[in-house]
Amino acid sequence: MLEIFADCIINPVFPADQLKRQRHLTLAAIQARADNVDAVAFDLLAANVYQAHPYRMPRIGTRATVTSLTRRQLVDFYSRYARPNGMVLAVLGDVRADEVIKQVETGLSDLEIGEIMPPPIARE
What we know:
By secondary structure, the chain is mainly alpha-helical. The protein has helices at 2-10, 16-34, 37-49, 63-68, 71-81, 97-107.
């Protein structure tokens, strides 16, 4: 299973049909939030409390941001932030820790370590 996981992490393909499917599901979830008075109130509160900070934006995105997201933007984001020094891997079950650590180190050895430079966040 680690081999399949490593392949997905190291060699993501972001197929267009899956991006289209996920976009459709996310837009449906955004529409459902619009029918939820608590969600609308929370979004309005966040938008008014935070004027510049990313907390002002809904975590799920907006109709405009989701529809305008391109595959290229997704690939660029993944390339920038999917780094082993920015990840946490949890392994559960009846396993031997030393063996799992060795397998993870071997399986993910091709994952490039690099600097993670998040965009600057405005102070409120």
